[in-house]
């Protein structure tokens, strides 16, 4: 095993957190901002890159950090090391309502592909890199651009999904069509591409975007019901303009804007 072997327990329903148990000298790495709590004998240290042991040279660390920068993440991650004598716990929380998904990379043939903002934490030794798309359509219209995140190694990794999590086992050649933002991750055997919805009415009035993702088996696919982009869009749409709050569900919510001049009349 290259990655540290860690035990864990996931707590909660809508706002989950994962509690990781570390033996002496075991460590876990996490994204900045996901830390929740830890025992006193755990040492926290900021590291350059993803903390994997694949290349400890200066150039290797710079390349590792550069890959994270391409996915929109920080150049640095935080490592939590148990320097005590017994078992110690450290916990990491979900960034918004949803589910935490544990991924055993040894059961995924050493590689799992996920959305670039889905990664939460992992055993030290797991490599957090980038997965470039080789298909133009996926790169231009996939919502994640040419880049998705890949987790490599033989340890445990934890990713976050918004809302309710659905797991689909695809047979060889079986196709699943999904909203591009609803994909959480999938095994490396799944073929991922983008398909145009088609139809003038669908394009102009459908309200679901112009493209959806096609996932072709064999392999496992994880789907989320509430992507963060969708959640953020609903929150922004509900913010009263000009600081005026006429009450949710009130008829004045629309007519009041017109009478008050907010609609430009």
Key attributes of the depicted protein:
globular; alpha+beta; 265 residues; 5 helices; 19 strands; Double-stranded beta-helix; 40% strand; 6-stranded antiparallel beta sheet
What does this structure look like?
- With 265 residues, the protein is an alpha+beta fold.
- The protein has a single domain, classed as Double-stranded beta-helix, CATH 3.60.160.10.
- The chain is 17% helix and 40% strand.
- It contains 5 helices and 19 strands.
- The chain has helices at residues 58-70, 136-141, 200-205, 228-238, 252-260; strands at residues 7-11, 17-22, 27-30, 35-38, 42-48, 76-82, 88-93, 98-104, 111-114, 119-123, 127-132, 147-152, 156-162, 165-170, 175-178, 183-187, 191-196, 211-216, 219-224.
- The strands form 4 sheets. It has a 6-stranded antiparallel β-sheet with strand order 5-6-3-10-13-8.
- Strand 1 and strand 2 form a beta hairpin.
- The longest helix is centred in the first third of the chain and has 13 residues, at 58-70.
- It is globular and about 60 Å long.
């Amino acid at each position: 095993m290259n990655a540290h072997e860690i035990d864990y327990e996931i707590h909660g329903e809508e706002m989950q957190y994962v509690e990781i148990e570390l033996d002496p000298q075991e460590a876990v790495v996490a994204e900045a901002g996901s830390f929740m709590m830890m025992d006193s004998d755990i040492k926290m240290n900021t590291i350059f890159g993803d903390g994997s042991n694949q290349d400890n040279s200066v150039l290797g660390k710079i390349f590792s950090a550069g890959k994270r920068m391409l996915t929109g993440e920080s150049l640095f991650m935080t490592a939590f090391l148990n320097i005590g004598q017994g078992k110690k716990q450290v916990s990491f929380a979900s960034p918004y309502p949803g589910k935490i998904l544990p991924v055993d990379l040894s059961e995924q043939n050493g590689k799992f592909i996920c959305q670039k903002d889905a990664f939460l934490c992992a055993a030290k030794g797991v490599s957090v890199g980038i997965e470039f798309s080789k298909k133009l359509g996926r790169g231009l219209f996939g919502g994640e651009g040419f880049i998705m995140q890949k987790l490599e190694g033989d340890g445990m990794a934890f990713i976050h999904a918004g809302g309710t999590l659905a797991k689909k086992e695809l047979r060889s050649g079986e196709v699943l069509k999904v909203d591009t933002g609803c994909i959480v991750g999938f095994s490396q055997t799944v073929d991922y591409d983008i398909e145009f919805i088609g139809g003038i009415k669908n394009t102009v009035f459908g309200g679901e975007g112009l493209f959806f993702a096609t996932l072709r088996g064999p392999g496992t696919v994880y789907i989320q019901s509430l992507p963060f982009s969708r959640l953020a869009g609903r929150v922004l749409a509900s913010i009263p303009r000009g600081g005026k709050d006429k009450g949710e569900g009130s008829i004045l919510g629309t007519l009041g804007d017109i009478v008050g001049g907010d609609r430009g009349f």
